[in-house]
Amino acid sequence: MDFSAKVSTAELADRWLALDKNPKTRKQIQDLVEQGDLKTLEGLLRKPLEFGTAGLRAKMEGGFSRMNCVTVILASQGLAEYVEKTVKNAHERGVVVGNDHRHNSADFGKLTAAVFLKRGFKVYYLEGISMTPLVPFTVKYKEAACGIMITASHNPKDDNGYKVYWDNGAQIIPPHDSGIAACIGKCKDIDTWDVELVNTHPNVINMKAELIDKYYEAMQSLVLDRKLNESTDLAYVYTAMHGVGAPFAARILKELGLKPYVEVAEQQAPNADFPTVVFPNPEEKGALDRAKEKADESGIGLVIANDPDADRFAAAEKQADGSWFVFSGDQLGILLASFALRLAKSHGIDPSKIAMVNSTVSSGMLGEMARIEGFHYRDTLTGFKWMSNELIKMRDENGLVPCFGYEEAIGYLMCPAVLDKDGVSALGCFVQLAAMLKEQGLTAKEYLDSLYIKYGYFASNNFYYICRDPQKIAKIFNKIRYGSDDAQDNSGRTNFHIASNGTTLRYPTQLGGSPVTYIRDLTDGFEVDNLCKLLSTDGGDSAQIVVSSDDKTYVPRFITSPDSQMITFKTAGNGRVTLRTSGTEPKIKCYLEMFGSGDNRDAVIENLNKLVECVDKELMEASKNGLA
What we know:
Elements: H1 9-19, H2 23-35, H3 38-45, E1 55-59, H4 69-86, H5 90-93, E2 95-99, H6 105-118, E3 123-125, H7 134-142, E4 146-150, E5 159-165, H8 176-185, H9 197-200, E6 204-205, H10 208-219, H11 226-231, E7 237-239, H12 246-255, E8 262-263, H13 265-268, H14 289-298, E9 302-306, E10 313-318, E11 324-326, H15 329-346, E12 354-359, H16 365-373, E13 376-380, H17 384-398, E14 401-407, E15 411-413, H18 423-439, H19 444-455, E16 457-466, H20 470-482, E17 493-498, E18 503-508, E19 510-511, E20 514-521, E21 526-528, H21 531-537, E22 544-547, E23 566-571, E24 575-581, E25 587-596, H22 601-619, H23 622-625
Parallel strand pairs: 2-3, 2-4, 3-6, 7-8, 7-9, 12-13, 12-14, 17-22
Antiparallel strand pairs: 1-5, 4-5, 9-10, 10-11, 14-15, 16-25, 17-18, 19-20, 20-21, 20-23, 23-24, 24-25
Helix pairs in contact: 1-2, 1-3, 4-6, 4-8, 12-18, 15-18
Keywords: Carbohydrate metabolism, Cytoplasm, Glucose metabolism, Isomerase, Magnesium, Metal-binding, Phosphoprotein
GO cellular component, one term: cytoplasm
Pfam family, one: PGM_PMM_I
């Protein structure tokens, strides 16, 4: 379908109205046509949704740029065509389709299933409301050709999404994303609008109850000490954040032999309007307030939570002074990694056979743990699609056992039966860890402190700026990358002259008062290590280092993307800064970490604060650029 400038806004609107049979979205576009509101129509119609974080995600409205019945059907038609061409015996292997409780999720799921049924696929349809982890579990368990989950996870209530898993049970990665997108782009007509087909078609396999049972059978591998689980008096308050997690969380506790949770009643039932939270994301400030209040009322010192589709996990613990300590995603990651290591050893797995991963914006502490404990560790690009596929690679190529993976955005992979983040299995493991520590007279925070002593203190500060102007974002990153037009502003920068294309990159050589030792730019495809050594041999801070066209020394090991921004710096003072744009939100995300001795934390925090100030004032120039 052509969306180029040669196609007028009116023509795009006509195309839309020719396709759309949903009365609500059709009326929205029709009203805008009658009002002559070309600007709004342009925003809704001109740029079609593209595959980003393993699928689609956007606000629910009419138009090719939004989530709606038309874009879901077209995406399903393109995906079905690509799967037919790419996966052997795809029709017989079938596809998995599930949906959460968001507005329109049920219809989007039924339409997705209908498209595949029309093309002769067998469909494992997870009727009703499902948690996201059940889809990748089913894909792997049934050896399906692919899986689709309709969810926008923890996004605001007006959003929805279309998440795709490949036949290995992991989210899609290149080249599948571009291949699917190309097939979607060729779709001009709609095959079916039959939301009732899932109720009548003989190729529908509705075995959801059995699949849930099989999921919990697989989770039995996570039991560390059943006797302790059954005897502990540890209590905890749980919130489902108005999502789908409550029954799944209740059952994982029961299956592992643990006590039931105390519920936050007003947040337990699925509610697509998320009435008691500003953002339905346990990471956001205030999201756990109701759960903490319930815990205070009940005399309970532990709060656990899932996000709305139950693929993320969060926790908070009451301290001796009465305050609540909310664990960061990295802190939970390290606690759960220590549990995973202990669990693997209890199953007789030698550390030399263990594989763990995290994203490159997550804490480097997992790598230090690997160095000391002897297991295999790799970092990856952001997103579980990369981490899960890396674990698969480590398993298939090196014979390693995938035991754990995490990202700082409270996503955790605890069991290789689910090759994606799974908030329910993470909840079960964390509660077991907390019960074990209680038996030893420790809190989770105290245990975390002991890990800092053992592996070093890693302090992080992750934040984001809101910026809705793509040109401004490009200008900010280009100044970081190329320096200023004013030569005086370029003092303290190193010139990397790329001989192959004549480009000169001018990155800063100091951040937060510490020399830069490492730079990786995944937008421009450039990486350099041991920068201090290079500068000392090439004439000081303003030296020009020529990179020849055939020199692979400076090529990143990660895939590069000129369509998104991502730059990482490391400093001689054990600091790390990663700046990147979001694929789904108007944000510039900043991930900062400082590493130091476990018994000198004040110095680590002081240096981290210097780094934060440097990013805000020098790199982002937040005040000057009007960044919120």
